Amino acid sequence: MLKLIYFKMRALAEAPQLLLNYGKIEYDYLMSWDYFDGEWSSVKSKVAFKQLPLMEVEDGTQICQSIAILQYIESIAGLTINDPLKSAEAMAVLQSAQELFAPLNPTVNFATGQDFKDKRDKMRSGLESRFSDLARCLEKYEGRYFIDNTPRAAEFACFHHLDLSKKLDPEILYGFPRLVQFVDDIQNIEAVKNYLENRPKLVGVGVEPKLILDGSAHPTGVNKTYEV
Fold first, then answer.
1. Domains of the chain from N-terminus onward
2. Which residues contact 199 (CB under 8 A, 6 or more apart)?
């Protein structure tokens, strides 16, 4: 079975999990300390590119970098785009969505108090500019998504960042009706809906961010914690 290794945060492991669930591919999600049997600071130097997420496939091969992981999942799920031009267009969207990672993901998962407010306000114009780009890309073809009516890596990476941005401001997408429709289309896919309903809840954003794991609240981060 595939293994996906990451941390206690809602960030770069979300799009892979959305794609895995959509493709009905079984996998285990492991925290870094469980997989490596040690704290991140003690194993980081031994990991390719010194960062996560990481995917381990059935033969033990490790795939690093989130876009590479997403491409692998697309391939085994039979979702690869055969047309080289449309494949390149989808990759451009995927890369553009991944560029939203910082400062959006770190701010939502870790920033608190005035620091959270300052970072939120500072990034707003940049987010809205990229949202406008993504909305325009959705208008190019007639399907629900960027290329056609099938969601792939680009769609799930985009969805993650749009969904996470609502933790900054629940109304941030209101100026982009095409993106609102896109988010609605993605989250109403049955497999996606089930995943979203059952994934760990992210609470206390901007105040004291925590993930609810097995019924207990744990501070977001890269180290193992216990019930709070």
1. 2-78+195-219 (3.40.30.10), 84-188 (1.20.1050.10)
2. 10, 17
